[in-house]
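Notes on consecutive records. When two proteins share a document, each keeps its own sequence and its own token line. Never mix them. Below: protein one.
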Amino acid sequence: MVACHECDLLHEICEVPHHGRAHCTRCGAELYRHIPNGLDKMLALQLAALLLFLIANLFPFLSLEFGGRGEQMLLASASFKFFSAGMEGLGVLVFLTSVLFPLMTIGGMVYILLPIRLGYRPPWMSQVYRVVRVVAPWSLLGVFMLGVLVSFVKLLDMATVIPGVALYAFAALLLVTTMARYIHDESVIWPLVGHDVGERVLSGSASEHGLLHCHICGLLSEGPAEDEHHEHCQRCGSQLHSRKRESVARTWALIATATILFIPANVYPVMTITQLGSSDSSTILGGVVKLIESGMWPLALLVFFASIVVPGLKLIVLTLLLVTVQRGSLWRLRDRTTLYRLTEAVGSWSMVDVFLVAVLAALVDLDALSTISPEVGVNFFAAVVVVTIVAAQSFDPRLIWDSDERSGRKELE
């Protein structure tokens, strides 16, 4: 048996065709997939990603030529500028999401897959995979690449921008990691460990039958439904819970925090451009207006959507989900689950403005000729993005379906 991680419904495991995917019959979430020769494909892509990652970090990423002066940056340079500007927290965030977490994700998968390919289980495999699952959502290579593209376009009018070898390697890395996520098949990893609950339960939710679903490895375990017992997965050692503890209260607190931070994030400037002694500070919305004035409508719409619309909609959607859960609403359960799924997927793209400022500040540092400096607004905006991502992760979508099960039990009574 397998339980849906979004609605907790139990399903009997059945065979799926090559490259096929099994989806939950109730909420539509993906349950599992079957990739032929999955181990070889996954390992090949992760090894290629590791090589491309090293190239992307060791060679020049971008170069800038302006007024007879030149400046070049490495991939990690995007975070160093924040340290020199006294924004250490922001520097750590950019370094983690653009360098360290991607490396941990790729390196962790190579550490797991290579020994499996050689026929044995690596030491601490469960612990390493848990770390990979935690940091993978914070590996924002695609968002960083979008920030690079936006900064590239913004600089074309004021200087000559030369892509480095590392930029091409980074683009290839993004493609390879996207393919790796698409063909990722967890059944390649966990069958080696064993443990099974059996197939005696064929209907209803896991919690109704006293089963706990591991969100890391997917194993069903017998255990009490009360969260205070702190049961652990027999297979990967992760802590089990019938529902995320204090999910509603924690998510409300994070939404309130993000809403407060959203105001200064849009009021204060995020960067200052100094060119030949003349300085000009701009907010997030001001940057969108300048792109429109330059005739870059597609880019302006992209930045506006990612930096303003997405955070605002995310707060509205999470508020709607919390209110309907607390009211025990049965309104459009599947649609609300899909809405949560989309909210969780697109939330990290709001980091594009943070990466944009990081790249521009690292690249444009030509003293009196031209300098771009980060401002306090980018701190608030980064905090909004991080808090909303954590808020989405704190919400338990299974709570949406608990109302349906309670309603069904009342009808039976």
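Protein two starts on the next line and is unrelated to protein one.
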Amino acid sequence: MRDPQIESFEKRLHRIDQIHQAGGAFEASGALGRSYFDSMRPKSRRSFPLRGVALIFAGVLLVKGAMLAQVGQESYEARVSSLANGSQFERVGAWVMHADPITRKIAGLLAPYIG
């Protein structure tokens, strides 16, 4: 004769195996189980990295300001104007490298240190 407790235990094991095969699990209340970590998936990133573009833009402005402070206003403008008279690629470079007000401000701040 079979013990009723063993039959109950085997039924419970069978039910647990079925739940595990289906991808489920038992979770104690208050525990961080599978459902918690499934809901805490990493958030998707922006498709366009704005921070990276802003850092590149700031770096270009800093380099332009350092170049302007190093060679001086007249020499810098002469070099940019010689670029403007060149090929299409050089004209794009002249447009990027022209001394805008932000570049002049940065050059004014860096001039005492670059000399």
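For the record: The CA atoms of residues 7 and 13 lie 10 Å apart.
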